[in-house]
Write a structure and sequence with these properties.
Blueprint lengths: L9 E4 L4 E3 L4 H15 L3 E2 H8 L5 H13 L4 E3 L3 E3 L6 H40 L1
Antiparallel strand pairs: 1-2, 3-5, 4-5
Amino acid sequence: MSVNSVNLKVIYEDEDVIVMKAPTEEELVELVYKFIRNKGRPVTWKELRKAFSGTAGEDRLRKALSKLRLMGLIVELRGGRYATPDMPGVEEELSQQKRRQLLREAMSLEWTMFRRSNSHTKSSRMEAVN
């Protein structure tokens, strides 16, 4: 799907150029969602930026992506890729991300507990010396 194929209001047209009205925030959200869904695979930020250049700035594009994530219509994958939750392989990748996150949190907690027990042991030794 080309962004140019969307029914945006044509403001000016001649042989060389067509000028269309920029999409509203709601239209942009819908356009981004349709673009990702029609690709049928995760798309990169670079692909989205290229597809929507001339249609929406980066800030508006990020805002649309954020809305779609909050609505649960898309997910952000590693490497700055965006996909719909039902795309092939996405569920597995999300569960791997969740496992990695849980492991990082567990290791962080373990390290915190280790440092506390070590500092407690050191202070106990210091008190015994005094």
